[in-house]
Amino acid sequence: MVIECVCCDTRIDSKNYRPFHGIAMRLFVSARTNLYLRDSGSICNACRMSYLKWRNNTEFISVLNRLEEEEPNESMMGIDDKDDDGNNEYVTAAPSNDPIDTNVVTLPLNISVSSHHHCVVCRENVNSTCTVSDEDRDLLFMQSNIFIPKGSRCCPDHVVDGRLINDNLNKIRPRDIMQTSFSATDILTWLGKFRNHYNSIRYFDFDPPFSMSESDCYNLTGISKANFDHLVKLLADSNIKNSSNRSFRNAVGLFLTKPRLGISNKVLTTIFQFSNSQAVSRTLAAVRQAMLTHFVPHYLGFNHISRQEVIDNHSSPLATQLLTDKLNTVVLVIDGTYLYIQVRNVLTIL
Ligand SMILES: [Zn+2]
Ligand SMILES: [Zn+2]
Question: For labelling alongside 23, which of 3, 109, 141, 350 has CA 20 to 30 A away?
Answer without folding.
Answer: 3
